[in-house]
Design goal:
Length: about 450
Amino acid sequence: MHSTSSKNRTHRAARAAAAVVAGALALSLTACGGDDKDGGKEDGGSGKESASTVTLPKLDGETLEVAAVWTGTEQANFKKVLAEFEKRTGATVKFVPAQDPIINFLGSKVAGGQPPDIAMLPQPGAIKQAVDKKWAKPLGAEALKELQENYSQGWQDIGKVDGKQYGVYYKAANKSLIWYNAKAFENAGAAEPKTWDELLTTAQTVYDSGVTPFSVGGADGWTLTDWFENIYLSQAGPEKYDQLAKHEIKWTDPSVKDALTALAQVWGKKDYVAGGAKGALQTDFPTSVTQTFTGGDQPKAAMVYEGDFAQVNITQAKADVGTDAKVFPFPTVGDTAPVVSGGDAAVILEDSKAAQALATFLASPDAATIQAKLGGYLSPNKSVDNAAYPNEVQRRMAKALIDAGDDFRFDMSDQAPQAFGGTPGKGEWKALQDFLKNPSDVAGTQQKLEADAAAAYGN
């Protein structure tokens, strides 16, 4: 599914906007000198608490279930948001751990007559499927009011199906970042690259210093789709990106060949990926991050690609964001640097006063501010005080996200039917895992991607 704004923007305008956003992001990230120590204040640096802005009903005795695939720190931090809702309303909220793909998990719950009240869906495609299956319920007037006050039109639109609002994008992600071990770069004399060719030069410089350039979490297929999407958006441009996302052009298109060929310059280069292809395919996303920031000045890899949420895992590696761990925007492969976003939307499955109240709370700056202070999180809610974020790197990322307004492209695989873009061992995830194993097979990978896409999209 596409936002209305994405449909209506012209190719030239989208390119220009992407260039502006990418430039601002590059400037903001490279300007970050280190972790801002005043972020230890309760509000992340401003010295004042954000005022409560949303009115919630009393819900004493009400019980709600919220399902999400979040684990570890991410889950623990979200539970603190739910605890505040409980405190304000008197309701009891239970977090239900879900498995990927969440649509399958929800299907079993619905079939058993026990759907959660709200599900946090990580794909617009999943929202559409929930609506098509008549599981999802539209948002009420209070939630809509919060959305309209606090979100850009683009973030509202990607939560809509057939013009009706079903999703509240509570969590956003900047998925166009590469994190690096500052000490490994310093020892190698490596510089932050701005273009794809410079990235390859930087990788060789790091390799020559005795450190493997890249860590890749290939056990999780979604990390591989994110690699592809950044290259494709920058190289092929926003218009083709939108067409491929809707399967209006085939995966056998020459533009896909070009992107896979570029990707093979990293994945196919001997000893450029920690553990080789076999090791990468056994490495999950959290490990791909932590192994980049442990081992002193001899980490398993110097760089790891992924979004702002990698900060949670960097912290688990006991590295400081902004000093030990630094970041640069995903390099320009074509005309402009890519700006790829992702996110998780709250969708009501069991309509009730309590469920609508929780959706309203999650659309408010009150909820997002709580999790913003805890780190490893970005909100598309433009009413969240930027000072709530705990360090300068994250504040600048949040500002770049809000300043982008509607000028972003949502994660392509998340827009696809779940069977193609969001299922372990199937579709795009599996095809790119196979490509990581054999990056010379560009044509075969394209054929497999097209066959799976045609089956999933029904065209």
